[in-house]
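Mods, move this if it's the wrong board.
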Amino acid sequence: MNAVIKAVSLSSRHAFSKANVLSIRLIEGHGVEGDAHMGVTVKHRSRVAKDPSAPNLRQVHLMHAELFDELQALGFSLKAGDMGENVTTHGVDLLALPVGTRLKLGDEAVVEVTGLRNPCSQIDKFQPGLMKATLGRDAQGGLIRKAGVMAIVLAGGEVRPGDTIGVELPQGAPRKLEPV
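Not the wrong board. C-alpha cells:
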C-alpha cells in the first residue's frame, strides 16, 4: 500500500482540535502557514512558559489514521484534525520512524521528524479516557506514545489530501523517537 495523506488541518487559535481544509502550505523553517503553532521558536503555550526562545521542534504534527481505527474499536469517535494534527497519514508507521527521517509530502514539501507528541490532559477533556487509550506498553513495559509525531519543515510547499508520502531514513545509526 502506498503512503498517502488522508487529511490536512490547521487552526489559527491555540485550540485542541484543528479544522480540516482543502490544502495547507508548509513554510520552510516555520511550519503550517496560518497555524497557531507556526514559527521558528516554540509556540506551544506550556513550552513558551518554560523558554520562549527554544527552537520550535513541533512545527508540524503528523498522525496516522490507523490510530483512529484503533480508537474507534475502543468506543471513541474521532475524525482527522480532532487531536490537533496538521497532517493525517495512512500507510506509513510514523511511530516506528527514527529521529531525522525525512517525509516528502506531495510534490514539494519535506519535513523532518523530530520526535513524538507527548499526549497531555487536554486529550481527556476532549473525550474522557482518550489519553489512556493513546498510551500503551511494549513487551518490556516501556511506555508507547501513540499520538503521532512532530516535525520541522525543511522545504515548503502545498500539501493536500491524496498526496503521496515519500520516506527517506537518516544515515547512520537510527535514533529512537522521544517526546519533544
